[in-house]
Amino acid sequence: MAHRVSVPRAWGTFLYLCAKSFRAKRILEMGSGAGISGAYLSAAPTCEALITIEGSAARAALSTETLNALRVPARVLQMDLAAALQLVFTENDAAFDLM
Description:
Order of helices and strands: HHEHEHEH
Helix content: 40-55%
Mean pLDDT: 91
Strand content: 15-25%
Structural class: alpha/beta
Strand order of the largest sheet: 1-2-3
Number of strands: 3
Low-confidence stretches: none
Radius of gyration: 12 Å
């Protein structure tokens, strides 16, 4: 499954460079997939927290496994996008550097 839902290396590098350029501390990702894009995003030196949303239970589990293995400071929300966004913005007061 990871090969089907992961970002290619070039796009992962692009995501990393975006997070690094913005000096992103808090990152919100919509669509976790296998957790690879989240790993690239959170590799930015300034990243303190990544919240990633995934509707699919199987993909959310894979993403959690990937991010935990890499010791990424991430929170994977397995839920409907609209509900997740409402929860995230209520809890975090929209304090994200990169979405």
